[in-house]
Amino acid sequence: SQTIHQWPATLVQPVGSPLSLECTVEGTSNPNLYWYRQAAGRGLQLLFYSVGIGQISSEVPQNLSASRPQDRQFILSSKKLLLSDSGFYLCAWNAWGSLFSPLHFGNGTRLTVT
Amino acid sequence: GENVEQHPSTLSVQEGDSAVIKCTYSDSASNYFPWYKQELGKRPQLIIDIRSNVGEKKDQRIAVTLNKTAKHFSLHITETQPEDSAVYFCAASILEYGNKLVFGAGTILRVKS
User: Is the pLDDT confidence value at B95 over 90?
Assistant: First the structure.
């Protein structure tokens, strides 16, 4: 069966520091991968999605970036964090090529920028 | 691009009553509409989904209806229980490579016992 791992679970970082969040998927090949952000009490904002290695689409302008160095690995990064980057970050995957494949979310990373 | 609106933003019901959450979408090409439940501090989890060629789908106390002409779909929870309390998100698919989902803003459902 497929599983998605996301770490760390919580992170407290000072303003201006770098960020690296990692997500890996097991049990499937060539998944679509996504990064969502959820501010406190708010909805799910799509940040990036990827349909293959090295293929990243950005949804909103920001100081975050994403990379997909391997088929089942998706990384969210920042060179300098802002206070507004605080939130709950969720990695997700669904099956490539399937019009009706639901999203499966990781457990999320709660990021607090101080 | 696709836009999904969800109402109400909060909903309080008495245990045993029904709850209805409504969503509208803008892209007539969308063809997949899942609903997610998110408990406090947890990840969203799929509870039910419907495809565009189906008007209604049920799973025990949960049902979803879809009106493609009007571009709206709804989640119905009957005989609500305290454990139904959570945030519920609707979503609509975009026919791009990844079948990208656009989410509604969420509904906080509180079931009072």
Answer: no
Residue among B31, B32, B103 minimizing CB distance to A43: B103
Specify the pairing of strand B107-112 against strand B10-14. parallel
**How many Cβ contacts (< 8 angstroms) between chains A and B?**
64
End-to-end CA distance of chain A, in Å? 38
- Please give the residue of chain B at the shortest CA–CA distance from A30: B98
Per-residue confidence (pLDDT) for residue A96, from 0 to 100 = 78
Find out whether A50 and A23 touch, Cβ atoms under 8 Å.
no
Look at residues B84, B100, B101 and name the one whose alpha carbon lies nearest to residue B37. B84
Over residues B79-85, mean pLDDT: 97
- Name A32's bridge partners: A94
**3-state helix, strand and coil shares in percent for chain B, rounded to the nearest 5:** 5, 55, 40
Q: What is the pLDDT of residues A30-72, one digit of tens each?
A: 999 999 999 877 789 889 999 899 999 888 777 899 999 999 9
